[in-house]
Amino acid sequence: MTGAPSPAGKGSEGRRRRRMAAGWGRALLPPAALLVLAPLVLAPDPYGEDCKTKTYPPSGPTFKGNVPTYIINLDLPPSKRWDELMRDKKTELKTVVQNIKDIANTFFPSGKIVDIVDHKVSHLTETLPYPFNEELQGIANSSGVPLGEIVIFNIFYEIFTVCTSIVAEDKTGKLYHARNLDFGLFLGWDVKNNSWTLTRELKPTVVNLDFQRNNKTVFRSTNFAGYIGMVSGVKPDLFTLTMNERFSLDGGYVGIFEWFLGRRDGMWMGFLTRAVLENATSYQDAKDKLAKTRLLAPAYFILGGKNSGEGCVITRSRTAALDIWDLDIKKGTWYVLETNYDRWKPPLILDNRRTPAMKCLNQTTQENISLPTIYDVLSTKPVLNKLTVCTTLMEVYNGHTETYLRECPDPCSPW
Ligand SMILES: *[C@@H]1O[C@H](CO)[C@@H](O)[C@H](O)[C@H]1NC(C)=O
Ligand SMILES: *[C@@H]1O[C@H](CO)[C@@H](O)[C@H](O)[C@H]1NC(C)=O
Ligand SMILES: *[C@@H]1O[C@H](CO)[C@@H](O)[C@H](O)[C@H]1NC(C)=O
Ligand SMILES: *[C@@H]1O[C@H](CO)[C@@H](O)[C@H](O)[C@H]1NC(C)=O
Ligand SMILES: *[C@@H]1O[C@H](CO)[C@@H](O)[C@H](O)[C@H]1NC(C)=O
Ligand SMILES: *[C@@H]1O[C@H](CO)[C@@H](O)[C@H](O)[C@H]1NC(C)=O
């Protein structure tokens, strides 16, 4: 392959790349697919743009709406906690689950995979720790979606989440935490209107959750209805937390296969973040748990506290923290940022959201950092891309959270 892709993906190169991406969707092998596609694109990102300014409060074509808030009452038995949410969202959940099944059936036309999921995976639920096992059973019961499919749906979130997360500190020592949630990589490209089918179908399932005990907020999160792990959350006046997928070929998916085969000593990543948000008692306690608990797959945890200097990116292998990148105001590190690549390695040329995000944060400067200016950064292509489902802005003080559904009008990077 020689020659640069034409701008905005309008030329034949752009079309070819999109066709390939759609084809690879059937293979369900995102990291491998990325590696194959990587050498095709050697030119600067054709979808890049100047750093956005004054995009907040959200409006215009990149803003697709607000999301509703539901209370999850932790005083209820786990099997009842999700009933109210499921009453409202079961139709949307079924649409997404059906889409995932269609993809599986395209790849394995015999229908065997779905059959295995419906009849075998549900038994695995019993081996999950409390309260997750009972919550999943409750969701299956109240949504009418078979238990095995609910479990697979939860596993999908653990695997297919590509994101951009930022923790930043302003000149007064105030901390901000924000993220774009990008989801649906390689899961069905819709050529008719240039969008990822799953990304589009997920938007109506996005909800803000307020987890309460004794009628008081324990933590808040932004979730997909039907998923019981946590990818973004805030524990008021203690810490903020987001999780990003870490593609790693060194045993990345081995743990998940081992789990299917019966090995149970690692924890699902989203269950760890949930347990930390629910039960960790301080920034340090959260940091220790996120760094040390054995996991089923690698991940990045991005953690913010409430005091100056409390912010870090924890790069995890299944067994250990490989790196902890802390804020260091004295040395000029006033923000930490994670996309889906180890910070000591260059990001994939094909998927470089890190450099544009850093460029925009650097341009903003610490003097002017705030939730609105961070929203600007997260609204700049390709940090904003076709996979972006929503943007969440959080402040630890009082557990402040804002979530906005997003749209990325053409020309826009597919990821
Ligand atoms: C399943 O849901 C029905 C109502 O939809 C409820 O009556 C029943 O108690 C639930 N069963 C379990 C095990 O939660
Ligand atoms: C995209 O096209 C599909 C049908 O191919 C349609 O159902 C969907 O509403 C369209 N989405 C948008 C955002 O236009
Ligand atoms: C929570 O509030 C509801 C009504 O607002 C009340 O009926 C219930 O008893 C309260 N629960 C607790 C544990 O305080
Ligand atoms: C948090 O701790 C409580 C009390 O020990 C326990 O019942 C609950 O299951 C824990 N939550 C999670 C998600 O592990
Ligand atoms: C942003 O600033 C940091 C710290 O000065 C520097 O290391 C980094 O290379 C800059 N990145 C970009 C993309 O400008
Ligand atoms: C910071 O914000 C002020 C006030 O809005 C503006 O005058 C200034 O140019 C900004 N600085 C940078 C580096 O953007």
From TrEMBL:
The keyword Magnesium does not apply. The lineage of its organism: Eukaryota, Metazoa, Chordata, Craniata, Vertebrata. Pathway: Lipid metabolism; sphingolipid metabolism; Sphingolipid metabolism. It comes from Anas platyrhynchos platyrhynchos (Northern mallard). Residues 1-43 form the signal peptide. GO terms for molecular function: fatty acid amide hydrolase activity; N-acylsphingosine amidohydrolase activity. This is Acid ceramidase. One of its GO terms (biological process) is ceramide catabolic process. Gene3D superfamilies: Penicillin V Acylase, Chain A. PANTHER family: ACID AMIDASE, ACID CERAMIDASE. Keywords: Disulfide bond, Glycoprotein, Hydrolase, Lipid metabolism, Lysosome, Secreted, Signal, Sphingolipid metabolism.
